[in-house]
């Protein structure tokens, strides 16, 4: 009991509590952790991570089962039995070959224009156009503007195609003439006039159907499915051959455009995901012969994803394969990694020219260098559209061509494959012909002439402004939001690259500014922008050694904290390789660094941006979400040779030896690189950019004369057969961890 206290003591101490030895609470006191003596191993061992623990348990169970089978075999044969190779491999900790049967592994490479898939045991994949046709009130040619875009009501070609584009085209023609004269090639002064006058007078020749031996077999929309009803969905080649005037009408849907999920043409996210699932499902059944879905549980799947991917796209593919298709295991591999596996290279700068995007990445020891990844939004499809547009400008006889129509698109692809080249030796005025085969119409034979269009269209890789880039970002992030960090919901989590950021910063320098002047902030009164607590490291500063002798040769992988508000912090501008201001309006280039190789003449860099603290208004911090939103609004487009040099410089981080090694191992893959003379032309452009390293630069096509289109798929099939592959994701892991299991399983930093 508490003893009595006299009134004198109370008057002296007031309401002070007298000490009676009782604690405030019976809950034990937990002292704070001393970081200097922090020896806990929580989440630092493999057995504490579910994905790795399940993998170790599966290997242990496999070893036990193999031991039991061996003992049983020894008992049945009186102790004389030879160990199979499978058991020997299993004793080493690797899976047995029966578990890694290549005929039970499906390799999938989805693209913007084609889907390539097949078993890992196949020599070559099956190629299916990535398109789906469903019943719809209107066709795509009726719903959308004609391609190439032009004003049909105008009379002159300059007015139809636009004054700005016409001037660019004329400038390219004049530059080509100068270049050909410098190379001692004969140039006729009236070549263009010959082409224009001939094409203007040409009339088509009508050929009846019974006289056309190459008549196209169009898809019959009244075909009955297995259930006896009319087919409502067609995929691949069948979808492309559905007549535009069919009854009922069908519309073509393309789930992937420009390397992204196609949010522009789809009304809902569910419709987009459903079409993607339908194409894969029917491809498995019709192309691979997997008619019964109950058999799919015996198969594994390897999916090829872009180097710079959207995490929502990867997670959706994983969900499709595990939950809908019910594959036993799924693994992911990046395109550049797969290309080096397919070609047998240990170190390379991979240039993948696809249909609607061109990706560049440097690979070293089988892993992609993160800061070297670049994704440009143009490819072979842009060459096709520009080639047709240039010929239309020169009075192409088939003026009604519209790439939205299915037969016109197939015709344009055929013309590009036949006639486009990057060799100046093949540039001359020549007569050509083509046959226009439209459904329910007689065949029409056209004669036409062309001159420099065949080389100027693919030269758009080095001058992308000639392409139509006006609608490539329409409705970006309209249906599918970007991925955010699981522990910080305001921190964008999609992969970033210093080289990609340099390309974006050249187009719009503000994408790298983490602060903005208060005077330019137009928010509500009193509103304060949050300070980002994480930020991606700046791209490598090529001129850091000139400006600051103590600068480190490379960027740290750890994110740096954002500067405090109100502090004047200079933000270094990103640097992108460039040789002259004529190509990229003065893009910066690397210079001599500590005795390194000097950059070509005429290159310079953008000055660093800083904010003066003397002004009355203090600069406000931009959140990481604001920066990501602005970067998404910039279309990544740059000349191919400058993008390659930027990627290599960001991969080397100032190491001149590595720059020379990567310049000597540039590998070109993808369908867009099948244009004749593509690799030698790229090599010439790179040597012009770095004349000091002319002897070191080497651009090669795929090894062993393999088709450039299938190198990536072939590499993924080789990867899937590796016995030491630890990147498989099982259904059990996905059901427990969800998409978080990708973080622990993929071979790169997810």
TrEMBL record:
<feature type="region of interest" description="Disordered">
    <location>
        <begin position="1"/>
        <end position="29"/>
    </location>
</feature>
<feature type="compositionally biased region" description="Polar residues">
    <location>
        <begin position="538"/>
        <end position="558"/>
    </location>
</feature>
<feature type="region of interest" description="Disordered">
    <location>
        <begin position="516"/>
        <end position="611"/>
    </location>
</feature>
<dbReference type="InterPro" id="IPR043129">
    <property type="entry name" value="ATPase_NBD"/>
</dbReference>
<dbReference type="Pfam" id="PF00022">
    <property type="entry name" value="Actin"/>
</dbReference>
<dbReference type="InterPro" id="IPR004000">
    <property type="entry name" value="Actin"/>
</dbReference>
<protein>
    <submittedName>
        <fullName>Actin-related protein 8</fullName>
    </submittedName>
</protein>
<comment type="similarity">
    <text>Belongs to the actin family.</text>
</comment>
<feature type="compositionally biased region" description="Basic and acidic residues">
    <location>
        <begin position="1"/>
        <end position="20"/>
    </location>
</feature>
């Amino acid at each position: 009991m508490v003893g009595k206290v006299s009134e004198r003591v109370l008057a002296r101490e007031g309401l002070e509590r007298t000490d009676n030895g009782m604690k405030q609470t019976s809950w034990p006191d937990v002292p704070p952790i001393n970081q200097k003596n922090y020896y806990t191993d929580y989440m630092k061992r493999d057995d504490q991570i579910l994905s790795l623990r399940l993998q170790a348990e599966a290997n242990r169970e496999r070893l036990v089962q193999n031991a039991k089978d061996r003992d049983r075999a020894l008992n049945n044969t009186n102790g004389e039995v030879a160990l199979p190779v499978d058991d020997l491999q299993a004793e080493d900790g690797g899976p047995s070959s029966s578990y890694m049967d290549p005929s039970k592994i499906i390799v999938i490479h989805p693209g913007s224009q084609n889907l390539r898939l097949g078993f890992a045991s196949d020599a070559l994949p099956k190629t299916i156009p990535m398109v789906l046709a469903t019943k719809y009130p209107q066709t795509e040619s009726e719903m959308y503007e004609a391609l190439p875009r032009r004003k049909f009501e105008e009379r002159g070609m300059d007015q139809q195609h636009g004054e700005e584009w016409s001037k660019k085209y004329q400038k390219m023609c004049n530059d080509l003439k100068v270049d050909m004269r410098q190379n001692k090639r004969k140039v006729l002064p009236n070549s263009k006039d010959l082409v224009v006058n001939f094409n203007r007078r040409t009339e088509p020749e009508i050929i009846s159907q019974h006289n056309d031996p190459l008549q196209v077999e169009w898809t019959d929309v009244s075909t009955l499915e297995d259930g006896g009803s009319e087919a409502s969905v067609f995929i691949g080649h069948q979808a492309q051959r559905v007549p535009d005037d069919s009854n009922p009408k069908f519309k073509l849907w393309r789930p992937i455009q420009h390397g992204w999920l196609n949010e522009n043409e789809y009304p809902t996210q569910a419709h987009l995901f459903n079409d993607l699932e339908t194409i894969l499902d029917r491809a498995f059944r019709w192309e691979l012969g997997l008619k019964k879905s109950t058999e799919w549980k015996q198969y594994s799947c390897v999916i090829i994803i872009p180097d710079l991917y959207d995490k929502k796209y990867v997670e959706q593919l994983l969900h499709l394969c595990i939950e809908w298709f019910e594959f036993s295991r799924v693994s992911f591999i990046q395109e550049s990694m797969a290309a080096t596996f397919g070609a047998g290279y240990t170190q390379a700068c991979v240039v993948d020219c696809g249909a609607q995007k061109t990706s560049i990445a440097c690979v070293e020891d089988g892993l992609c260098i993160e800061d070297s990844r670049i994704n440009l939004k143009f490819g072979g499809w842009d060459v096709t559209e520009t080639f047709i547009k240039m010929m239309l400008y020169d009075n192409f006889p088939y003026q009604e061509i519209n790439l939205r129509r299915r037969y016109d698109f197939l015709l344009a692809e055929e013309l590009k494959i036949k006639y486009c080249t990057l060799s100046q030796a093949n540039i001359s005025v020549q007569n050509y012909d083509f046959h226009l085969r439209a459904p329910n119409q007689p065949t029409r034979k056209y004669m036409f002439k062309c001159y420099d269009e065949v080389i100027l269209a693919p030269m758009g890789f080095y001058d992308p402004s000639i392409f139509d880039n006006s609608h490539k970002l329409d409705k970006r992030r309209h249906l599918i939001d970007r991925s955010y960090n699981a522990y910080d919901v305001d921190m964008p989590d999609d992969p970033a690259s210093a080289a990609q950021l340099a390309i974006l910063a050249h187009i719009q320098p503000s994408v790298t500014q983490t602060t903005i002047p208060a005077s330019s902030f137009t928010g509500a009164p009193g509103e304060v922008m949050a300070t980002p607590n994480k930020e991606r490291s700046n791209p490598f500063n090529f001129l850091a050694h000139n400006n600051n002798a103590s600068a480190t040769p490379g960027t740290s992988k750890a994110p740096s904290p954002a500067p405090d508000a109100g502090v004047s912090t200079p933000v270094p501008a990103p640097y992108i390789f460039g040789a002259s201001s004529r190509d990229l309006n003065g893009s910066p280039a690397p210079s001599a660094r500590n005795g390194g190789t000097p950059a070509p003449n005429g290159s310079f860099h953008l000055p660093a941006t800083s904010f003066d603290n003397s002004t009355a208004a203090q600069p406000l911090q931009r959140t990481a979400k604001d920066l990501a939103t602005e970067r998404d609004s910039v279309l990544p487009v740059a000349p191919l040779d400058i993008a390659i040099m930027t990627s290599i410089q960001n991969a080397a981080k100032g190491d001149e030896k590595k720059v020379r090694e990567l310049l000597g191992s540039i590998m070109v893959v993808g369908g867009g690189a099948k244009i004749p003379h593509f690799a030698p032309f790229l090599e010439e452009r790179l040597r012009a950019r770095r004349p000091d390293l002319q002897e070191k630069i080497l651009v090669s096509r795929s090894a062993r004369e393999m088709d450039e289109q299938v190198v990536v798929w072939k590499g993924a099939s080789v990867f899937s057969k590796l016995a030491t592959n630890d990147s498989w994701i099982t259904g059990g892991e996905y059901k427990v961890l969800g998409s978080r299991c990708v973080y622990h399983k993929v071979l790169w930093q997810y």
